[in-house]
Specification:
48% of the residues lie in helices and 23% in strands. By secondary structure, the chain is of the alpha+beta class. The strands form three sheets. The protein has a five-stranded antiparallel sheet, with helices on both faces. Strands 1-2-3 form a three-stranded antiparallel sheet. A two-stranded antiparallel ribbon has the order 9-10. It starts with a helix and ends with a helix.
């Protein structure tokens, strides 16, 4: 049997300490020593439960104190950080709303091309109208971080636009009207070039706002051609043609009129038509009759 292990060791002449079962079957920490004269053994013991009790109590107390401290810290942390988290969430929501609003504002400008490049002419941003215009003019669709010149097919167009980008990268904001592409896909753009600065006031790129003014440009050219055609008709007419405005200032004076009156065109343009009449009253009467009769 394993009972009374400490005493059995003492009776066999052994001495020392041991953790084992006493005669009750309880686990004890025991010191034992033989008494050879009396052929006896002496055992001093203490139950391990009694040894462990203070440590278990201390551990439980430390555990509950730790739980209390952790819980208190968690509550304090939550109370302190919750307002910060709510503020961060609100800031994030505001930033998202601002981003969506800015993106919507940019993309809503269907007739305005917007793009930005870094110093290596690589795309940082471009809107949908730019994608559409590049598809019409050059073909390849642009990609973020790709060089804009890799998406342009015309060498002359590349050299032309690079000059404007370089001017902006040298801190020169400017407006330019250029034509790109080849007939029948030739287009005219009015572009505004501006440098992009970082927080240290260093130029890190360029932004361009361009508007397709092809229709306006073609209309202007058509109007110019019509005016030139009308002017040629007036100038080449064998009949004397003199045009005046509502204030009776001479606005047109053709070659036949020059021959008839002996004045050069530059001498009469902008002058009052009375200078052509010996009797100004007669000129006024003709003017009134023309205005009334049409």
């Amino acid at each position: 049997t394993e009972l009374a292990e400490p005493m059995r060791r003492a009776l066999t002449g052994m001495s020392g300490t041991v953790v084992g079962l006493d005669y009750r079957g309880e686990l004890v920490l025991a010191a034992y020593e033989p008494v050879a004269v009396l052929d006896l053994g002496i055992v001093a013991k203490i139950d391990l439960a009694e040894v462990r009790a203070p440590f278990l109590s201390a551990a439980l107390i430390a555990f509950f104190i730790t739980i209390l401290l952790v819980g208190t810290g968690a509550i304090i942390f939550i109370r302190v950080t919750n307002p910060m988290i709510r503020q961060l969430e609100e800031n994030a929501a505001q930033s998202e709303r601002a981003r969506v609003l800015l993106e919507s504002s940019i993309e809503s400008q269907q007739d305005v091309i917007i793009l930005s490049l870094d110093r290596e002419y690589r795309y940082l941003f471009f809107n949908k109208p730019h994608t559409a215009s590049m598809k019409i003019v050059s073909g390849p669709l642009p990609q973020i971080r790709a060089c804009i010149f890799d998406h342009m097919s015309g060498k002359d167009d590349i050299e032309k636009v690079k000059i404007h980008f370089d001017r902006a990268l040298q801190a020169e904001s400017h407006v330019q009207i250029d034509e790109y592409g080849e007939d029948p896909a030739r287009h005219y753009f009015e572009s505004r070039y501006n440098p992009i600065y970082n927080i240290n006031n260093e130029i890190i790129g360029v932004t361009s706002f361009a508007q397709n003014i092809t229709e306006r440009k073609l209309a202007e050219e058509t109007l110019k051609e019509s005016r030139e055609f009308a002017a040629n008709l007036i100038e080449s007419s064998l009949d004397m043609i003199i045009a005046v405005d509502r204030r009776r200032r001479i606005r047109e004076f053709n070659r036949a009129a020059v021959k008839a009156f002996g004045y050069e065109r530059d001498e009469v343009i902008g002058k009052h038509v009375n200078m052509l009449y010996v009797d100004p009253r007669k000129g006024l009467a003709i003017h009134k009759k023309t205005v009334n009769d049409g």
